[in-house]
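Sequence in, structure out.
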Amino acid sequence: MNCVSNVPNTSLTFLWLEGLLSIMVQMKIDESRNGSVFDLPEFNIAVFSFLLHFVWEFVQVPTYSGMADMNHWDGTKLCLSATVGDVGFALTAFWVTSLAARRRDWIRQAKSWQVVLFVAVGVALTVGFEFYYTEISKRWTYSELMPLVPPLGTGLSPLVQWLLIPPVVLWFTRRQVSGSGSQRSSE
């Protein structure tokens, strides 16, 4: 949106819609070619993100106030909820990167700028959501074990999470998606 008026920037809107349409067309082509949801990069991003972030959420429990003392089931539900949010961040990062690359299969031979963009989107979402939930809505607070990173006081653990896990997710996804394609062509 333009800061001066409420009229959206038409060239940016057109670029965004063009990129989205391009991705949707490519998804349809992939679907007709592959025929399996397991070959879609989004599926693999979601699965590997879920598995890795779920473990991380449990490891960082002591850095959030009250989590270590919470009963097991409530803590598990809270970690599961946070993990679903992490998967949403990863899918958003994938789609933003796909729009910038103008193709969904960028992950097969990711360029460094694509990996940086993928990670940067996740970090930006993390900083924004952590700030909102710790400072505005007060939905959660950090324990004294959580080092804070200026200027917004974001916890170090979620930042490290989004610097370490996404490249590993991309690596697993690339191996899975590339392996699926080479198995199919050899059959």
